[in-house]
Model the fold of this input.
Amino acid sequence: MGSSVFGIGVSGLNAANLGLTTTGHNIANVNTPGYSRQRIIQSAPYPQGSGSGFVGMGVKVDTITRIYDQFLTRQVNSTQSQSSYYDALLSHLKEIDNIVADPDAGVSPALQSFFSSVQNVTTNPSNMPSRQQMLASSQTLLNRFQVFEQRLAEQRNSLNGEVTNTVNSINAIAQSIAKVNNQIALTNGAGQPPNDLLDQRDQLVRELNVQVKATTLQNDDGTINVFIGSGQSLVMGGNATTLTTAPSQADPERLAVVYQQGANQVELPDSLLNGGVLGGLLEYRSKSLDLAQNSLNRMALVFAQTFNEQHRAGMDLNGNLGGDYWDFSTVTMASIPPTVPPTTVKPPALGAVRTNQANTGGASLTGYISDVSKLAASDYELVFDAASNKYTLTRLSDGSRSILDPTVAGQDPVAGLNIEGMYLKLSATPAGGDRFTIQPTKGFINGLSVGITDPREIAIAGPVLATPNKTNTGSLKITQPEVAAQTTVTTDAAINPSLRNKVTVTFNAAGTFDVFDNTAGVALATGVAYTPGMTLSYNGWNMKLDGQAAAGDVIVVDKNTATGSADNRNGLALGKLQTTRLMDGGSATYQEGYGRMVAAIGTQTSEAKVLADAQGAMLTQAEQARDSVSGVNLDEEAANLLRYQQAYQAASKLIQIAQQAFQEIINIGR
Done:
């Protein structure tokens, strides 16, 4: 009996000691991230039978378990991924929002200042200081474009570094998870859960979700598999896959996340990595940074192209037709299809066309900007599907697609086609699956410069002047001729070479008039019925006439020779460009088109802030829910200390009493 009492006392002593150790372990790890409180699970051993019944054998500790809820832990991981995603997105959106929306140092104030200088020259066309100021404002505007483009480029370079660092962090965490998996697998055969290792692994999974959205799957040996993207395995038991960054096959200047799959490297689409810091960085790049850079370059391109077209319609102080006010990259005449008249001004070149490095065919893609009003602030991807013999052109900014059927007129890229404000032409039919990335406005600002250095070459005057004969007896009223307006199509015919030919308009007794080109010696029209208010259009100019004409009245339209006069007709037309809707299909001015981008970035920033705050609150709630089950409560642990201390003392007393009882028995036998 005494041996039995001793055994029971020792078992109680050991159980209380384990309880004290476990409680002390909980208290020591109260501030350890990811720690789950532990407790001992004890039970009574199988009793020993006797003639008087079954006699208890004391207590045994079955296991030390952690208080853990896998669903609450998954909730924390999922919420952590979304919270980190929006935090990363918001921090970068704030940076770009501060750049594009600066009310004082932004592009819009510089553009306003430039057009103010145009108005000053228009007010006094022969004033040289005003002309010098216009050139200075032009350079200021160009500098503003270039500074903004440089700052956005710096954002992209910095982003590339952040993407690389994030991928390196993902690799390090994955290696750590694989290492802990191995340790868990080794201890799993002992039959007891390695609680601290399990907590350590759970914390690593949470840290991984800070970087990228990840899901896990439990294995029979206690290890887990970790997946990212659309199911790509990052950790398989004790083995981790290495991610890296490399130039994208679609665009070598753009870093892509690459997944190692055996001996092959697979480029992961940005859309698959949609959580954590990495997802936020990639979302920011594709939805915000690309938008800002494309919008800025598009605005500069539309502005420079349309301003040039109007400037060429004027006359400078030297009596010459205006030249290109802005210089930028244009295509060679060989790139323009033969259907376009050979007298056209060369259109702007496409910023960049990338042939995907995975293409198996030998086709190449070329083209140019064909209509600036239809140009979107976006990159594009052209893909050929050999099975259907059709092409898909995807606008990458919003994912909208155009299906091109080569059997339909105007839809064959090999023959050349106009679409989305671009002219595109393939050198040959591509192989199935071949892809081409088109960046219409990329780098435009970097190649832009002011094309005029002599202020006398600013073309403010109209190139032709209409003069009625002094002997006219009718009451004709003349609106001075204007050069026929150019459209937003970049392959419009150049200024009519006969524009400044001397033309005589002679009115007949029958209420008709004849038009004769004296310079060319040809009749342009005879017997045309005159109607007050009508517009005459010949040799590339338009002139409105009103009032009554008498037989024999003559109007002469000839080259404007008053180069130093107050003629400002083309200056007025140049100034009018500021308020003319030339962008987004004729729905926006220069500043409105740019303002839409600023508004879009501002909206994205506001939405990201709201969602970041909401996800932060949800993460706090998820952590509190998890801690309410698994967290260490010091008050509870203090109570446990007292409970196990009393149990230890009682077990010690039991052993002491048993010892005294045996001693008494020994004394009786003496």
